Amino acid sequence: xxxxxTNLGTCLVEGFFEFISEILNAPxxxxxxxVHNLMIEPVNIQIFAEIWAIVISILSLFYGILLVITxxxxxxxxxxxxxxEKAKRSLSNILIMMVLIQASFVLYSIxxxxxxxxxxxxxxxxxxxxxxxxxNSLSNLGLELILLVPYVLMILTTLIFLAIRYVCVSAxxxxxxxxxxxxxxxxxxxxxxxxINYLAVLIxxxxxxxxxxxxxxKLLNIxxxxxxxIILMTATFAIIDIFTMILLFSVILKAANSLSAPISNVTxxxxxxx
Length: 274
Known about the structure:
By secondary structure, this protein is mostly helical. It has nine helices and no strands.
């Protein structure tokens, strides 16, 4: 309804609160736009296409060596069925490895596009109003002013994580090929698994972020949270940040455990020799 003499007071109050809301949302909108783009847009991996090609050419040098070694194993196996089966298995693994490494750029790109489509579909279910502060009373204004800085800090932290993730995923196309190569080399298999798992976690992060944000937006429909929207928004982004830090810590811990085993073996051998 339009403003008139009969409802002038109400219109002035609503106009004042809308004006305050616009001021409070002004610094948040650019940050939310960046968060939206980093979560929805597919990561550009063409930047590292030339480096990927160089890495592939280096890895391809090992194909012939591995095939020759497998051929010798097959010839030296004699009448041992077990050794022959191992040689055949090694040959098939090498062929699969060659195909996967050569197609790693396309496979990696498809994985990124699929994750981007899923996260976009989930993110689009979130009402855009969920991310905006709303002022509708003086008590609500006080709460918004107090929690605006923590809310912005949580968004900034999420934005930093997303930016780091973008760079790592973009460069990850190089390490994806290396991870595949390591995975099919038995002594290096644990390192290959670690690299591939690490990249899989980084690529799929936006899906988990979108699910957390969608859950937060649905909680806003509950009456208990309706009057504390900014608390819910801040808590939602805080959960995203904590979730990311826990994942990073677990990946670092797993990497440390993977590296400690070979180092301890080398130390034991050195002690025995000395």
